[in-house]
Model the fold of this input.
Amino acid sequence: MISGILNIKKEPGFTSHDVVAKLRGIVHQKKIGHTGTLDPDATGVLPVCLGKATKLCDIIGDWDKTYEAVLLLGRETDTEDTSGQTLKEREVTVTEEEIRDIILSFQGSYDQIPPMYSALKVNGQKLCDLARKGIEVERKARPVTIHKIQILEINLPRVCMRVECSKGTYIRTLCQDIGEKLGCGACMESLLRTRVSEFRLDGALRLQQIEELVQQEDFSFVQSVDSVFMQYDFAQVMKAAKKMVENGNRIPKEMICNMCQEKEQKCIRLYDWEDRFIGLYAYMPQEQDFKPIKLFI
Done:
């Protein structure tokens, strides 16, 4: 079984689940998961985890992301993008200066109401399934953070912008909120995800490229599980702690070696006596031992 992370370049027309389904056929294994839903019409970076790395799905999904989006002013739709039914159209009379000021005002934290056409669940049902039945339910606003917005081009009624944001941010909803604040309405025309943490578009591969590499028995495109934890210091456990490791127990400080002793180790990436990655451990000063945080054995 292959364990690791793939940086997939999702193409239009595929759901995130479609990508996973196709990869199962390409690499011939079932244990695969994606790290966050991209709309079918959206394109770009979609990290996919295989084997033991599926434990990373939620972690990677929580990391910051970067998008390039085209905002279409003057049109509102039921899906908040151009794939939906038009609800209202208005003339765009705002100036470029007003557009810049309003868009940049969304930098920082704000409460965003998730769209009905989304994979979020209410009482066990996906909002998008309810929306397709014509059912609209109340959604609570959730805090999101827009770290940075860069306006790339204004060619009215379209605005191309780059958005760096926190997890849970819906760019479709951001576009609609911008349109509402401008008073002319808006929706999202296109969306490209260019980054999920350190996974970037220039290193992403299309499914066809993955398939060709697998046929050549070239798996160099698979990124190791521990590669996303390089910000933590390296440490190694003694073989005498084998049972503790296998049982997921805490490990006494004296059984950890090859660790930097110059500073207090709040969190380490731990390897076994044969240099195989075990997982992340946190140091407990009072107990003088290391507690497992996330295991990949």
In short: The chain has a mean pLDDT of 90. The CA atoms of residues 122 and 137 lie 8 Å apart. The radius of gyration is 23 Å.
